[in-house]
């Protein structure tokens, strides 16, 4: 299982570029500076879309996938049984996981804690909250790799479209219309975010194709 692709410089560069575009668009939607909560939510949506897309096309053997799921199951069971919290014990158990399990769990822990912490150095597994966050991230990682792998890419894109629509519905005065324009480019912040996310899973996708994809998504609702 080649989950290490999630942390290559090239993949990070593409994600960071799209995050920059969407952050600017979100600020425009707020007519100033976006709320921190909204920015983190958008980052979460983009990260999940990209994570699912990259894993979708990796040549992963079923046997190895099952092995990682079992690793995460055992790790989750140990975390739930633990009554005396110890960061040293927790980190030791984490380091015994395979590199594949560590990468996916690290990604999910970042998503789980991004609203509370700026980086992993702030996490302390001696604290109850941080321990519970690790339990939630482990469950999230296990469920994602065992259940979501193999779902069509359009499902991941639909989840992104749905999340972005919900986010912009919460912004006063945001324009949620989606339509084609003479210059073949997105015009509103909402359209810009939708297209930027679509570009994460299809780098050269046209804005027109994003409009069609969003229209199909709306028809399926």
Description:
The protein is mainly α and 221 residues long. It has helices at residues 9-29, 36-56, 62-81, 87-95, 99-113, 128-148, 153-169, 189-201, 207-219. The radius of gyration is 19 Å and the shape is elongated. The two termini are 34 Å apart.
Estimated radius of gyration: 19 Å
Largest beta-sheet characterization:
none
Average pLDDT, all residues: 83
Pick out the low-confidence regions: 1-7
Number of domains: 2
Structural class: mainly alpha
Strand content: under 5%
**Share of helical residues:** 55-70%
- Beginning-to-end CA distance, first to last residue: 34 Å
Tertiary shape: elongated
Number of discrete helical segments: 9
Could you tell me the number of beta strands?
A: 0
In sequence order, what are the helices and strands, one letter per element? HHHHHHHHH
Topology readout:
Elements: H1 9-29, H2 36-56, H3 62-81, H4 87-95, H5 99-113, H6 128-148, H7 153-169, H8 189-201, H9 207-219
Helix pairs in contact: 1-2, 1-8, 2-7, 3-6, 5-6, 7-8, 8-9
Features:
single chain; 221 residues; mainly alpha; 2 domains; 9 helices; 0% strand; elongated; disordered N terminus
Task: Give a brief rundown of this model.
By secondary structure, this protein is mainly α.
